[in-house]
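Page 42, continued from yesterday. The earlier attempt failed because a stray header line got pasted into the input along with the sequence. Redoing it now with the clean sequence only.
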Amino acid sequence: MAARGLLLASILLFLYFTETCYGMISFSSLQRTLVVTASHRQGLLKAGEDKITVTWGLNQSFPAGTNSAYKTIKVQLCYAPISQVDRAWRKTDDHLSKDKTCQFKIVERPYNNGNQTLEWTIERDTPTATYFVRAYAMDAKEHQVAYGQNTDAKKTTNLFDIQSITGRHVSLDIASVCFSAFSVVSLFVFFYVEKRREGNLNSSQIKMQRK
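This time it went through. C-alpha cells are written below.
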C-alpha cells in the first residue's frame, strides 16, 4: 500500500510540474520574429461578409536558424485594448495559458520558410469589437516559441473594427413570411371544408326528414 501511495504521489507531482512548466510560457519571453500584415477595405467591417487578407513570414533581419524550431503557424484574431476594458473574459495575461486576448483562430498550418498569404472571411459569430491580428510560431510540442502581429507593441496602430451580425437574417425573414402566409391559407381552407361538410350534413338531414 505504501509503495502504491508513493507511486500515485509521484505521478501527481510529475503532472503538477508538467502543467506548471507549460503554464510558465510567457508572452514577454517570446521573440517577435514574424512579420504580419492584415489588409482589408476601409471602414467598419461586417462579420460574415467582409474579408481580411493576412500575410506572415520570418523577419529576414534575424540570423539563419532562428526558425529551426518552428513547426506550425497559428494565426489569430485578437482583441485590442480598447475592447478589453471592463471585460474580464477578454483580459490579457502574460502567461499564455491564461491569456484571453486572442480567442478566434484564423488559420493553423505547417510552418513554411517563405511568406504565406490567406484571404479570410470574418466568421459570422465574431463579436463587435476592435481587433488586430497575431501569429504564433509553435514548436513540435505545440508550445509558442515566437510571434508577430500587425500592430505595435502597445497595440494601438493598424487596428480595425468589426460589427457583429444583428437582427434576423434575410432568409429567415422570407421563411417566416412564407410560413405565415401558408398558415393563413391553411386556416381558410380548413374553415371552407368545415362549412361545406356542415352544409352537406344539413342537406342530408332535411332530405331524410322529408322521407
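Notes: Confidence is low (pLDDT under 50) at residues 11-22.
Reminder to self: strip header lines before submitting.
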